[in-house]
Amino acid sequence: MIRLVRAGPVRSYSRHMPAPAFRRLLDDIGPVDAVGVDERVAKYTTRSIKKQSKVFGLKLAVTMVDLTTLEGKDTPGKVASLCQKALCPHPEGDVPQVAAVCVYPAMVKHAAKHVKGTGVRIASVATAFPSGQAPLKTRLAEVRQAVADGADEIDMVINRGAFLAGEFAGMQDEIAAVVEACGDATLKVILETSELETYDNIRAASFLAMRVIRPGDFIKTSTGKTSANATLGNNQVMLDAIRDFYLETGTEIAMKPAGGIKTAKQALQFLIAVKETLGDAWLTNTRYRFGASSLLNDLLRQLETQRTGAYQAPWTFTEDSGGY
């Protein structure tokens, strides 16, 4: 059963954040018990999942992967290989396809040739990813073009400078403009948690974003392009925010941790957090995703180990295809 809990002292706000604006927001949404969050997520790492439950969890994690390539050297050929792996992660195993492929806007049309209509969605980072430092007009044009080329989902970055300056309305106006530019495409709002500095800031940014996006849209931890990315701690703060927002409004917001989740063991710990915070209703790729490039290979290795009883070498599965 989901419970609304707001406990603990207010954490110190960012040194960039105007105190009155931030304090008013915290009075509204409630602060984070940082010690409690850290103690709670530490317990997730002690859970043990065995046999069929482990296989179920590993396959579930596969269905939640946004298989990602975001490099300056991306080519249509590399995207084609990525799409093949997304559609058939393991040609010899009973392994489901992933949720989406995630590419730069210029690669959307190439991904569409391979996965459009297959059930694997096309996600594209936009709005001057990863910095977001471009005029709003340019960022919105990029979103519209990605959608026109076939993107089913858009991953945008928030204006962290506006948030840290306490310009909350301006930040929300920009998100709302991207929502409109997306049309029917799903939006994922990237907070870039490492640049927000504190759990209270992460909770605040989560609420600000959730108040202007639509049911079924996502909040997302990171771009994967900074030194610190998704952690069980910042994931938990955002899950708690989603729970509290749902209890307050009845609006179901989805979640995507991204960056730094490389092993099946980590993925299972994140899924435990989802189940214990939001329940089974969020254990689906319409409400939870992993943004990752290398996670899928480790999930496949662990599934093959469960299937054959033999431990698999790290190079068993290639980076860009599902074959050996």
TrEMBL record:
It catalyses: 2-deoxy-D-ribose 5-phosphate = D-glyceraldehyde 3-phosphate + acetaldehyde. Its EC number is 4.1.2.4. Signal peptide: none annotated. Pathway: Carbohydrate degradation; 2-deoxy-D-ribose 1-phosphate degradation; D-glyceraldehyde 3-phosphate and acetaldehyde from 2-deoxy-alpha-D-ribose 1-phosphate: step 2/2. Gene3D superfamilies: Aldolase class I. Keywords: Lyase, Schiff base. Belongs to the DeoC/FbaB aldolase family. DeoC type 2 subfamily. Transmembrane segments: none annotated. It comes from Haloferula sargassicola. Pfam families: DeoC. This is Deoxyribose-phosphate aldolase. The gene is deoC. It comes from the Bacteria.
